[in-house]
Specification:
By secondary structure, the protein is α/β, with parallel strands linked by helices. It has two domains: 3-146, Rossmann fold (3-Layer(aba) Sandwich); 166-304, Rossmann fold (3-Layer(aba) Sandwich). The chain contains twelve helices and twelve strands. The protein has helices at 8-16, 53-64, 75-81, 99-107, 123-136, 140-162, 186-192, 211-217, 231-236, 238-242, 251-254, 274-285; strands at residues 3-5, 23-26, 43-45, 71-73, 85-89, 114-118, 169-176, 179-181, 196-197, 221-224, 258-261, 299-301. The strands form three sheets. Strands 7, 8, 9, 10, 11 and 12 form a six-stranded mixed β-sheet that branches. Strands 2-1-5-6 form a four-stranded parallel β-sheet, sandwiched between helices. Strands 3-4 form a two-stranded antiparallel ribbon. A hairpin with a 2-residue loop joins β7 (169-176) and β8 (179-181). α5 packs antiparallel against α6 (140-162) and α6 runs parallel beside α12. The termini are far apart. 46% of the residues are buried.
Length: 307
């Protein structure tokens, strides 16, 4: 079988299913596991991904005014690779190439390639997507096993968190300028980790957030997880927040409960490493009860950040 995966989470799913050796193409953002970096790249951004968060946001908006996706597909390379299965997504035009772009690229040279389009909104959708990819790859039993193992790990954390008397209020920031809260599967995961999610609704796209609303909510914990950013890049956006009127008076700031995370590797990827993402959330929300060893690699308290 010849597999092309056009988003990082689906590449991780393919590898978790034991099919990494049959990957023949990937997106420019697929970088885990390490071995996939040798696989040919089939996509590229239509905008300059460097610069401030505000600049990136403006460039993305400009591209979307003229196209359905902010990424391009290398049609010639896809044709050369001749995949049997192409995994893409229809959740977000900013997250990866669109389903329509892939269909257009494939229809010019093939009617046989199976396109599997993922649309994970809730956690339940992610488990269903893993099973669908496994079915398309002819290994349904592996899909069931992967899902069962992930659900068991996450259920154990959730069960322990439910026994704790305190559920601190949490705001997850998915973009700093302009402000955006985390939606989709993240509100569910905050609750599973023993927190009370304040913005963003389970199963719904990440919502824009006003500073006045965040300030009024005065959360106990603020977790920074900008889409596509690692901790070092996330730290670069901290001065934007610190410059907001009243920032220093927030409870989370006063108590030293502002956290940097590697959103790119964990929270932004609806795949197998959401189990690690929940572990990170549990460590942040209830550090006295959970310790999985992610501090320093997956997350760090802002006050301890050294760059």
């Amino acid at each position: 079988m010849r597999i092309v995966s056009l988003l990082p989470s689906s590449t991780e799913i393919v590898c978790a299913l034991g099919m990494a050796d049959q990957l023949v193409g990937r997106s420019h953002e697929c970088d885990y596991p390490e071995a996939v970096k040798t696989v040919p790249v089939c996509t590229a951004p239509k905008f300059d991904p460097h610069g401030s968060s505000a600049q990136i946001n403006e460039r993305v908006r400009a591209v979307l005014n003229e196209a359905i996706s902010v990424y391009r597909v290398d049609e010639a390379l896809l044709q050369t690779l001749q995949p049997n299965v192409i995994v893409t997504q229809s959740l977000c035009e900013v997250c990866a190439v669109s389903l329509a772009d892939v269909q257009q690229a494939v229809c010019t040279w093939s009617s046989e390639a199976q396109i599997v389009s993922l649309e994970p909104n809730h956690l339940a959708d992610i488990w269903a997507d893993i099973r669908r990819v496994a079915e398309a790859l002819g290994v349904p039993e592996r899909g069931a096993a992967v899902v069962a193992a992930l659900q068991a790990r996450m259920a154990a954390i959730s069960a322990q968190a439910r026994t704790l008397p305190e559920r601190p209020s949490v705001v997850c920031i998915e973009w700093a300028d302009p402000l955006m809260a985390a939606g989709n599967w993240l509100p569910e995961m905050v609750e599973m980790a023993g927190g009370t999610n304040l913005f963003g609704e389970a199963g719904q796209h990440s919502p824009w957030l006003t500073w006045d609303a965040l300030r009024a909510a005065d959360p106990e914990i603020i977790i920074l997880m900008p889409c596509g950013f690692d901790m070092a890049r996330t730290a670069q956006d901290v001065p934007i927040l610190q410059g907001l009127e009243g920032w220093s008076a927030l409870r989370a700031v006063q108590d030293g409960r502002i956290y940097l995370t590697d959103g790119n590797q964990y929270f932004n990827r609806p795949g197998p490493r959401l189990a690690e993402s929940l572990e990170i959330l549990a460590e942040i929300v209830h550090p006295e009860h959970f310790s999985f060893g992610h501090e320093g690699s997956g997350w760090q308290r802002l006050a301890d950040w050294k760059g």
